Structure prediction request, 575 residues.
Amino acid sequence: MANINELKELLLGIGVEAEVVNTVTPTAALSQYNFDSLDWPAFIVAVETRYGVKISDGDSLRLKTLNDFIQFIEAEA
Amino acid sequence: MNTVNAAEALLGRNLERRPDKIAYVCGTHALTYRELDRESRRFSLLLHERGMRPGERALIVLPDTFAYPVAFLGCLLTGVMAVAVGTDLRREDFAHILQDSDARLLITHPDLAVPKDAAGDAAAVLLCEEHGFFPSPKTDGANWKPHQPAAADFAYMLYSSGSTGKPKGIPHRHQDLLLVCPLVGEAVLALTEDDVVFSASKFSFAYGLVNSLAFPLFFGATAILLADKPNPAILLDIIHTHRPTVFFSVPTIYSQLILACTADHLDLPLRICASSGEALSAAIFTEWRRLTGLEIIDAIGSTEMTYWYVANRPGQARPGATGQPIAGYRLRLVDDADNDVPPGQEGNLLVSGATMAPFYWNLPEKSAETMLPDGFARTGDVFVEQDGFYYHRGRSDDMIKSGGQWVSPVLVEEVLREHPEVADCAVAAVSVGALIKPGAFVVLAPGIQPTPDLAKRLRRHVLARLPDALCPARFSCVADLPRTATGKIQRFQLRNRR
Prediction:
């Protein structure tokens, strides 16, 4: 099952700086951390690859926090 | 035969009717129509003093502050062709544009080192000052008159990324900037002087130039300018502070605004949300409407055609459809032999209209390929028409439109191949998070294994060398690439492959 630390590892993996990742909380919108138009699709791809899930266009617009991603991955499992 | 000077027409009508109305807002500063007229004339005098003559070119590389409309309109008033490009181009692109346009003058901002460096001794430099004004001219301009252009004279030129990665110049005449206002601003968007317009797309793009210059000045509206790169927090702050009625943006920005909103509802003072510059997915349209109660008016246009030629209509927008043809433009959907295809069948879109650029600057072969003798231009876009609505189905070439910018796969591939872990690669359009993005398909160098950090390294490599919009959203490792018998990469086979 996905957990916060694994998702934070994925954020580090797409190049988000460690000091930013350390401040991310499970319920805060990732966009608050200055995620830009590059980080977001890269994170979607990283989650799809790591957990073998397909995030649809509609879902991708409703997954805003790390908790949203965890719940989605659990529901898809 | 003479024609109207677009700058004179746009400034004159407001000077007569509403001189003290605010034309532009930028941060906490405002510029009235009277001030805009005065500064544009002073800029024209400056150009005269710098020895610039009608027909010559000046390259404008400025952030979106008051300096942009002042310099652009000042060039047109002088008969100098305004060559407008973005601030984040590579040094070699600035050098190419300066050389290709033969610009004698670079108009830029003191903080922008790259264009100045690219200009070297090839062009004189004119720097704007704080709050977007320019040094005072030495003369009082008592005998100054606006240039009266011939109908065939060019007013301005924008550069758009070509398939080889080299920007190509697209020149336009004075009338093009004026004609789109009734054709689109009035007939499609019903703009009036009561509107406050805010465009997330910058002046240096055809979309932004019409949004922030032609429309507000033609209708006597007010435009809000944002000098910085847009992000959701800044955009929402501006929208809530200045209360625009019309917001022009691109799907990438709408997606970012949706993702930034954790509440169930987003209350905005807008009457129109417009989208162009890249394909708008039905998912973004639907989610935006759920959050804000507002529809997104999707449209497609091009730098070649000045602005839009297909658009949805307010109150009748269809999710997933780019829209209906705009009166004044003729459309054809044709097969590869240029035969018309019936409704419901995919075809290559050809468009014709009075605002079309006559050719690409210094590119006769590319011009002949695109601008056809019968007055139609090839758009490179594939559409299906059903019930009068046009649905975008992709590109007939390998170009990718992402974040409102053209991405040449060739350029990204060249940069990726410089990386020591990459033996070969191809870049094609992929769909990620309701947006179209460049995706890289990478054949690793011998002995290199894919590791979790590989994408990060490749991403940093690209970002250090190219503008952000060109960076692939996905890096997929593949054993080989699809090629033709002659070895050419078949990028279309990679589109949307995972």
